[in-house]
Write a structure and sequence with these properties.
The chain is α/β, with parallel strands linked by helices and 371 residues long. Helix content is 35%, strand content 26%. α2 links the parallel β2 (25-30) and β3. The longest helix is centred in the last third of the chain and has 18 residues, at 313-330.
């Protein structure tokens, strides 16, 4: 039986393990012993303790498995992916690190490894749709709006983080790269706020974030591309206040002989404020718009917290796209070696159809309108 190791036992990692465990032998690795205990006792999940920052020990753990899923925090994702590739293991990665995964392409080819990267919802499913439609039509403009939000708003931020606050703050501070007239341009995150109407209780605000990632290089024949993050109206202004006040600074400061970074203190405070409680209902919404002078295709995704499995919509949409990628590899539907972002997988009709069917079977549906 195929042995799969999931690195990271958080909400998304545990959802991935839950889904894959139906067909494979799955083990979850994490540094948090409490997380491992819950997975083992409540969900009968096989677990192993692992400190992902200790790359020598990580290599020893990787030896026992056929396929690796990397769901580690973004700040360590690149080094972990490189370690997995050096260990000659196929991998599906959703760590969304700031570095360019394509820089590891030659290393993956050399080690005979297939690495599917950014295989979540956005980046991930949105890229897959983009890649697929790029084979069917000439696209002049690509736009992605995406976000995950609690159903019940709580002040002051009216937001709950389905993953690490550090990774969310990274979205708010990393310069946003957009593609305009065939060139990469850089804008401040949280800017160019616009209200978008969805099938939600109210309009949502969209603002610039650095979400295009590999698309800037693999889809550079499309002259205009942008991705914006969705939140309840007013959220960006509150985050901008913290940012302007230095609360997200990496610069070390000292008080009473104790060194600290403002970002670490802020993230710790926001961890409580943004904590998504057990069984708290939330939703994920995404809109992909593909345009040329003759055609406009809009693809909407809306997904809610699953009360039957107690899995959040963000964990479902991210995790089940990832498990679709894992099944592509275990079923030998995609065998090329190297680094492959999702838009390249979407260009393969057999892979695209498999992923969409995989998501439909898990009640994740897309609504497509063509004008």
């Amino acid at each position: 039986m195929t042995e799969i190791l999931v690195l990271g036992g958080g909400r998304v990692g545990s959802a991935i393990a839950y889904d894959l465990s139906k067909d494979y032998s799955v083990t979850v690795a994490d540094i948090n012993q409490e997380t491992l205990t819950v997975l083992a006792e409540k969900y009968k999940q096989k677990t192993v303790y692992a400190d992902f920052s200790n790359l020598i020990d990580l290599k020893k753990i990787l030896k026992e498995y056929d396929l690796i899923i990397s769901a580690v925090p973004g700040f360590m994702g690149f080094k972990v992916l490189k370690t997995i590739i050096e260990s000659k293991k196929n991998v599906v990665d959703i760590s969304f690190f700031p570095e360019n995964a394509l820089d590891l392409h030659d290393l993956a080819e050399k080690n005979n490894v297939t690495a599917l990267v950014d295989f979540g919802v956005a980046p991930g499913l949105g890229n897959i749709l983009f890649g697929h439609y790029d084979t069917l039509m000439k696209i002049d403009k690509y736009t992605c709006y995406v976000g995950g939000l609690p159903k019940i708003k709580e002040k002051p931020f009216e937001y709950k983080a389905p993953f690490s606050p550090i990774d969310v703050i990274e979205e708010y501070t990393r310069p946003a790269r957009l593609f305009q007239n065939g060139n990469i341009i850089v804008k401040e995150p949280l800017t160019e706020i616009e209200l978008i109407k969805f099938n939600t209780c109210e309009d949502l605000e969209a603002f610039n974030t650095d979400g295009l990632r590999s698309l800037l290089y693999t889809m550079s024949h499309v002259p205009y591309m942008k991705e914006k993050t969705l939140r309840y109206p007013g959220h960006a202004k509150k985050i901008q206040f913290l940012k302007d006040g230095g609360f997200f600074s990496y610069n070390e400061k000292t008080i009473n002989g104790v060194n600290y970074r403002p970002l670490e203190i802020t993230a710790d405070i926001l961890k409580e404020n943004w904590f998504l409680k057990e069984n708290e209902e939330e939703f994920t919404v995404m809109r992909i718009i593909l345009e040329n002078k003759n055609q406009n295709i809009t693809i909407d995704l809306y997904d809610e917290y699953d009360k039957h499995t107690n899995i959040t919509s963000m964990a479902r949409t991210t995790g089940y796209t990832c498990t679709a990628g894992a099944n592509l590899l275990t079923n030998n539907l995609f065998k090329n070696k190297g680094i492959f972002p999702p838009e390249l997988i979407g260009k393969d009709r057999k892979c695209y159809d498999f992923i969409i069917k995989h998501l439909k079977q898990r009640n994740i549906h897309l609504n497509t309108n063509k004008n």
